[in-house]
Specification:
Radius of gyration: 19 Å
Number of domains: 2
Shape: elongated
Strand content: 15-25%
Number of strands: 4
CATH architecture of the largest domain: 2-Layer Sandwich
Strand order of the largest sheet: 2-3-1-4
Distance between the termini: 23 Å
Number of helices: 6
Structural class: alpha+beta
CATH class of the largest domain: Alpha Beta
Largest sheet: 4 strands, antiparallel
CATH topology of the largest domain: Alpha-Beta Plaits
Helix content: 40-55%
Order of helices and strands: HHHHEHEEHE
Length: about 140
């Protein structure tokens, strides 16, 4: 990937619905260049997909947080599978450092959030955790 590819991806992160024309203008390249690079980035697996975030995504489950989990022994795959089966779990990330996993959780209320934390902490192999509530989210705006 070169500088244009990185810039194209950055522009799509700012505005995933930007037209090819708008992307070409922002990057100062032709529309054909943008189309070709988008196709190549998708074919090579650099761009895996596009997504939409709706108002319902935030309002249906307004209590959101990140749970950092330390795992005893070699139970990461088993615990990841169990976490992925919980409807309140939006994503499970492996990481390095003190924590083994970072889990994105979203619920309708604080009591529901607390119940999910309690359930996860009871999983066999979870030896430690730390949780941070997400108070607000700022997304970059399109230029």
């Amino acid at each position: 990937m070169d500088e244009i590819d990185h810039s194209l991806i950055a522009e799509l992160r700012r505005d995933g619905r930007a037209s090819v024309q708008a992307l070409a203008e922002r990057l100062r390249v032709s529309r054909a260049t943008v189309r070709a690079r988008l196709a190549r980035l998708q074919t090579q697996g650099e761009i895996l997909g596009f997504t939409v975030i709706t108002r319902g995504d935030a309002t249906d489950a307004p209590v959101r947080g990140l749970m950092l989990i330390g795992i005893e022994g070699r139970g990461a795959e088993r615990i990841t599978a169990r976490l992925s089966g919980l409807p309140e779990v939006r994503a499970v990330h492996s990481t390095n450092g003190r924590w083994d996993l970072i889990v994105e959780i979203a619920t309708r209320s604080l009591p529901e959030f607390d119940a999910v934390l309690t359930r996860i902490r009871a999983f066999d192999g979870v030896m430690a955790s730390e949780t941070n509530l997400l108070l607000s989210t700022r997304r970059p705006r399109a230029r």
